[in-house]
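quick one before i forget lol
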Amino acid sequence: ESTLHQTGDIAPQFVCTTIGGKTIDLSKLRGKVVMINFFATWCGPCNMELPVLQKDVWEKFKNNPDFELVVLGREHSEEELTAFAAKKGLDLPFASDKGREIFNLYAKQNIPRNVIIGKDGRIIYQSIGFTSEEFNKMVDLLTKELNQK
């Protein structure tokens, strides 16, 4: 099993900084729904998922004060992520996980990978890979958790 935590577990704490300069400290985000997306620029399914993540999650929920998203580039530098975002026309909150420090808290392998952490700091959803069905299920869950129409 490549996933290190079960749904219901307290999510492992981490701090990172997005390429936009925002610090995300999981320990300070209690009371918010936090979504973590792990990806790599070379990963085919990740490249299919990111535009959908931008359109169906980020654009829909980014102005919700109870929502936080971080898109972690596994083994990528900030420079690589900045160039990738510009090339792909994405304005997601990308952050570097160059040494896999954050990824290794959650999993051993497999991307894309999504983790959603509920307002109580516990993992409420995890998925590996990208399918429209799975992604839509996840968007429904976020919509419900954030009481958003």
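fyi The chain has a mean pLDDT of 96.
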